[in-house]
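Write out this protein's structure.
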Amino acid sequence: MPIHRLMFSLVALSCAVAAARECPVAMPNVVVERFSSADCDTCWQGADHDRALPRNALVLDWIVPSERGNDAPLAQAALPEAGRRVEGNLSAKESLRQIRHLSSPAGWRLKVQTGLAWNGYLALSLDLERLAGSARTFGPHASAWLALVERVPAGSDGTPVPRQLVRAVIGPLPLDSSRDSGVHHLRALRLPPNSQAERLAAAGWIEDAGQMLIASQSVPDDCATTSAQRP
């Protein structure tokens, strides 16, 4: 990626972070991962996925690749990582929901942000901050993950319920939790094909041996917009 493009994204990202300071997002205590086969367009069009979502949940919608490859109805949004995350088998006409309860380790705060889309790129950041006085460390096999998600409103693109469609995943990212300053990761991604830049956001989490420990997501669009308009 040319350096001038990256620098622009970094400046845009810093503006988003400044707005986020006025729009704190409650840390989720549960992650709901909803999986649909790329063959199952009726799964995407159904409302069953939205039943009884836990309060203060981070919701991630994954499209699992099909054996039909690019011929599957939802192939453009399918990710190989989705197939690796789903627990058990997922048939061609089936959807699945997994609920992961977070242990929320004390003494740490996780923040993720996106910059402004520019010239086909978007910057994402993940900051794992050690709070003052915390002696807690993560295990040697713990890692960080960043996801670029597209927030699809209910009634758009054929879905009757709001979704956070995972469009790209970065990870595992290393953790050096012994550092007093915490951990910082910054990455630039190409905009996914057929995505709408204004709907893109970030989600992130820390996991160890398949167990999610802590998660976060970037501020809602309306919150960031309100902050930017304040005098």
